[in-house]
Each structure stands twice: as structure tokens, then as C-alpha cells.
Amino acid sequence: MDIIVVKPEATDEEIRHIIKKLEGLGLAVQVSKGTEVTVLGVIGDTSKITEETDDAFRAIPCVESVMRILKPYKLASREFRKTPTVIKIGETTVGGKRICVIAGPCSVENETMMLETAKQVKKAGASFLRGGAFKPRTSPYSFQGLGEEGLKYLEASRRKTGLPIVTELMDPRDIEVVEKYADVIQIGARNMQNFRLLLEVGQSRKPVLLKRGLSATIKEWLMSAEYIMSRGNHNVIMCERGIRTFETSTRNTLDLSAVPVLKKLTHLPVIVDPSHGVGVLEHIPAMARAAVAAGADGLIIEVHPNPEEALSDGDQSLRPEMFKKLMKELAPVARAVGREI
Fold it and tell me: For residue 44, what is the enclosing H or E element?
């Protein structure tokens, strides 16, 4: 028993009765209420649950069905939630018909640059502002970010433009300060399997943008989402950002096949990061258009007003005029697949 589907007419008291019985077996329960049915996701070691116990739960009048899920990720699976998850963040949504676009520089460098970028990307049609205040860099001698000072610059840009903020969390010790400023917490590729960090953001009420690890399989990626969801935070956004392969002509290999694969396996929204995915400026627009055609719910794109002076990833950052052109190019692609941007 991994999922119990409750009949539409079930009362709250009847649902609490089922939850109490499950907790008596040493199991935890996540409740997902849809418009037609309520689904109880059973968390814990269900392998020891006998068929007789399954039958006992089936005998409860308000229970419609009891099912087993063979996948190790239960809460993230399509079996747990048939309809796609749509996450509302302020006046914006991730998932649904409208494709969201997250844009901004790799790193927050100063308040003037941040505000200029925010105004430009909003004018072009972006729905979120991105910027790193804490930066995970390959070299310890590279720019590591401005910390809380950078978060304050992001907040100032949000006040001026209304764009919600997406920024990265690297250390569980920084979660309170990041929560104070961010609308969406990003978990970067290098931290996809930092399970302590995942459990911490699982207790947050902020949506989490979970980037795929550098060499992670889709199953491993979904298991990381499961870590977050197991603590009660179901607002997880999956982000394909390219994986490490033998190919050297691009920074990474952007796995666009992950988009339709995830759409079949999970109800969570899926976005694509073509900037890190290829890391070559001239190829980013093509991969952004391809991601929309593949069914992505959104894009995250690096934009900088003066890339040659950027403190990180300047070589893969679009100038505002390039970003504006790309947004216009994405509109007909979105319409072709029944979406809008």
C-alpha cells in the first residue's frame, strides 16, 4: 500500500480515521486534495505491509482504492497526482498554459546593474528575476557572491519592478536569510544530492527550483525532489540544465528529452536552463525555442547589460536586446504547442 484514494464524499473525520490507523503502523501520510478525489500518500517502509492489511483498508467505507507504487519516488509520481501541479507565486504561475521566463545575471554584482537588468527583462516579458547572492564556483579564488548584501539588491529590484526573485541557497545555515528575501529558492546542480539541504528546504514554505545534477539520472533527480516533498513542501520545480558527457563543443549536453520523460513520470512543473545547458551564446536562443517546443513549462536565462564586465558567466549571458528578440521568437513556438508566453 503506497496510495489510498478516498471517495469524494468522504468527511474530514473519516480521512483523519484513516491517517490515524496508518500512523499506528509507523507510517507518515501526505494528503493531496483534488477537485474530485483525495489521495493519501503513504510514506515509510510499506514493503512489510501485508495483503491482509491492504484488504483491511479497502474495507473502510470511504476508501475507493488502495494501490502500490513500484517507483521509489511516490509523492513526485504521476500516480500520486494525476493532474499537473501549478505553483502560484505572487501574481505569476509555474505550470499551466502560460510559460514562465526567469531572467537575470548569474551573479548579483551591484544595485545599479541589478535594477537595470530587472527593468530590461521585465519590459521584454520576463516573469521572474534571477541572480546569485551566494555563488558555488569551481575555483575557491573566483567571485563567491555578495551574500546578504546581494539579496538586498534583489529585493530593491523587486520593489521597483514587481518581479518575484529566484536565488540560490547553498548552505542550510543560510536558509533563514534567503527565505527572508527570496520568492523561489534555487538548489543548484552541485547540491542536487545534498540531502541535508534538501530536507531543510523541504520544511520551507517557499517554492524550490531543483536543478539536475551534473551527472544525475532522471530517477536520481526525482528522488531528490522526493526528499524535499517528504518534509511537506510539494512546490518543487524541476530544472534541466545540461549534463556532463564526452562532448566538448558545448559546456554541457542539454538533455531536452528529459522534458517529455518527466512529463510522463511526474506531475511537477519542468523548466529548462539553456544558458548553462550549452554555455555557448550563439546556441542559447535555438535551445530555448527547442525547450518550449518540447513542452517545458518555463525557461531560466542569463541576461546581463554588459557581459564583458560580468563577474561570472559573461560569455553565456544575453544582452537585453538579444533577450528581447528571443522573447519575440518564443511566442509563435509557444502558440504552436498550445501555450502562451
Answer: none
CB 268 within 8 A of CB 237: yes
**Separation of alpha carbons 210 and 241, rounded Å:** 10
State whether 48 and 99 are in the same domain: no
* Integer Cα distance of 98 and 78 in angstroms: 21
Q: Give me Rg for the CA atoms of the chain.
A: 21
CATH classification at residue 215: 3.20.20.70
For residue 142, the model assigns a pLDDT of 58
What is the value of pTM for the model shown?
A: 0.86
Largest distance between two CA atoms of the chain: 68
Angle at 149 between CA 92 and CA 201, to 5 degrees: 50
Average pLDDT rounded to a whole number, residues 68-92: 89
Strand order in the sheet with 28-33: 28-33, 38-43, 3-6, 63-67
Per the listing, cell 525555442 goes with: 289
What is the number of structural domains in the chain?
2
Cα separation, 60 vs 63, in Å, equals 6
Which residues contact residue 274 at a Cβ distance below 8 angstroms, ignoring those fewer than 6 apart? 254, 283, 284, 287, 288, 291, 299, 301
Q: Which domain holds residue 32?
A: 3-67
Q: Which cell is 106 given?
A: 548569474
